C-alpha cells in the first residue's frame, strides 16, 4: 500500500510516521514551498497526545518544550478559583508539555525523515479522483499529480479534500473569540515554572506560563462577536493592538499588562473556529483527519492531541483492515464520538471567556460556586480526555459503519 498525505502539519507528519511504523509507505505533500520553521505560536500537548506518539515509537523528550503539569484558574480580581493537575499523574512520569509549534514541527519532520518519509513541498492539492477501485490520483496546483492507494486529507481547517469528499460539507464555525500572544523577557511573575495561570478577566481571558529559561509565554482571547475578515485583522497595526490589550486588561488585578509591556513582538491576531460536526469523513479512497475532520477550539487544549490520536488510529486501521473501506469505517467508529465530545467541551470552555454573553457578575458567581464545590474532591475536569490509550500491538477490530469497536 502507498498512502498520499495532503498536508505536512502535525496531523499529516504524525500520520506518515505511524504508517511507516505499520509497514506502509507514505508520502507527504505540503502546500507551502518550505517547512514550518519559525511559524506559529505555542501549544500544549496533553498526556493523551504524548502517549499516542509514544505508541508509534516517537521519543517525546526529543521534541522540545517543557513539562506543564499543573493549571491554576483565577478571576480577574486575582481571586484563585482552583488548581489541579493538567492530566493524570502517571506512574511513568509522563506529563503535559508546552512547546512552540516550530519546535514540534521540526522534531516531527526529523523523525519522519529518519523513517524514510518523503515530503514534497509546493504541492497544493486542487483535485482528486478516487473512482478507480485500483487506486487514487491527487492533482496539485503546479500541474503535477501523484498516484497511490489512499489519499489522507490532513490539510487543516480549510481542507480542500473535505470539500472533494463532500461538496456540501459545512464551513468551520467562528466562536466569537480572537487569539493573540507572545513571549515576554526580563520580567518576574508569580507562580511556579510549568504551571499554566489562567485569568477570567473583566473584559478578556488571559493566560501565562513561566518557561524554565525565565521567559513568559502568554496568550489572550479578545471577544469579537462578529467574525472579522482577514483584511480587517491585517489592518490592525501592532501599536493599535498593543494599546487595545492594555485597555482590555487595565482594570484587572493580574500581571497581564506588565507581561504585554515586556513583550517585544506580539503575535498576529487570528480567529477561533471549531467544527461541531462534519457528516462525511471518507469516500472511496479518500479520508480526512485532524482539523480537516473536527477542529476543536483552542479552549479545549486538545487540537494537536486529537490530530495525533487520529493519525495513529488511522494507521492502525489501515494496517489491519481487509479493505480500504473497512479500515475507514473502523477509524471513524473509533474516533467520531470522542472528538465531537472534545469539540463540545472546547466550545463550553470558550463560553466562559465571553463575559458579554452572560454578564461578568453571573459568570464569576457561577465559577466561584462550581469550583468551591469541586475543590475538595481533587477535581480534574479533563480526566476523561486524558485517560485514553491506543493499544498499537493489538489488532484493530474492523467494524461496519454505525458500530463501535473497542478502543
| First and last CA, distance | 24 Å
> What is the number of beta strands?
19
How are the strands of the biggest sheet laid out side by side? Answer: 6-5-14-15-16-13-17
Number of helices: 13
For the biggest sheet, the summary is: 7 strands, mixed
Q: What's the shape?
A: globular
Low-confidence parts lasting 5 or more residues at pLDDT below 50? 401-407
Question: Percent helix among the residues?
Answer: 25-40%
Report the portion of residues in β strands.
15-25%
Please state the average pLDDT score. 88
Quickly give the structural class. alpha/beta
Write down the Rg. Answer: 21 Å
Task: Tell me what the structure shows.
With 407 residues, the chain is an alpha/beta fold. The protein is 34% helix and 23% strand. It contains 13 helices and 19 strands. The protein has helices at residues 10-21, 47-55, 101-114, 160-165, 230-234, 238-249, 256-261, 291-294, 303-320, 324-351, 355-358, 360-374, 383-386; strands at residues 2-6, 25-30, 42-45, 66-67, 70-75, 80-85, 97-100, 118-121, 125-129, 136-140, 145-148, 150-153, 173-184, 195-200, 205-210, 216-221, 270-274, 282-283, 286-288. A seven-stranded mixed β-sheet has the order 6-5-14-15-16-13-17. Strands 8-2-1-12-19-18 form a six-stranded mixed β-sheet. A hairpin with a 4-residue loop joins strand 10 and strand 11 (145-148). Helix 2 (47-55) packs parallel to helix 9 (303-320) and helix 9 (303-320) packs antiparallel against helix 10. The two termini are 24 Å apart. Mean pLDDT is 88; it is low at 401-407.
